[in-house]
Specification:
This protein has 130 residues and is mainly alpha-helical. It has 2 domains: 39 residues, no CATH class; 85 residues, no CATH class. Helix content is 52%, strand content 5%. The protein has 4 helices and 2 strands; from the N terminus they run ββαααα. Strands 1-2 form a two-stranded antiparallel sheet. It is rod-shaped. The two termini are 13 Å apart.
Length: 130
Amino acid sequence: MRKMKYCSKCGAVLERRYKFCENCGTRVGGYADSESIGVAQTWKPTVAGALTISAGAIGLVFGSVFVTLPPLFVVGLPAIIISVVAVAGGICAATRKAWGLALAGSICSVPLWLGIPAIVFVVMSRQEFS
């Protein structure tokens, strides 16, 4: 994939022939003066990470309670495992690393409904992950 150039102020894609950013009007002193960051970073992975970590933490609490109750042990142990994956995926989403694990973590947080927007945000921000 070819690295694109982005405005250092707003993150919009810059065209070689323009002297000003089409989005915010910032003067582009030269094409070389613009930032080469690969992809502009958005808020989506950070929010997805927060939602997924929150769901994972809630799942860990409920799983820990259920694992101590004999009839619910079979629910508590899988809940803990799924919650650990959710927390790990949330950390990956927030740091924009390991897109696959970030997506898996958001999927694991679906039982608490926080996973639905988290999945959408992770998928929409795929290009931001390393």
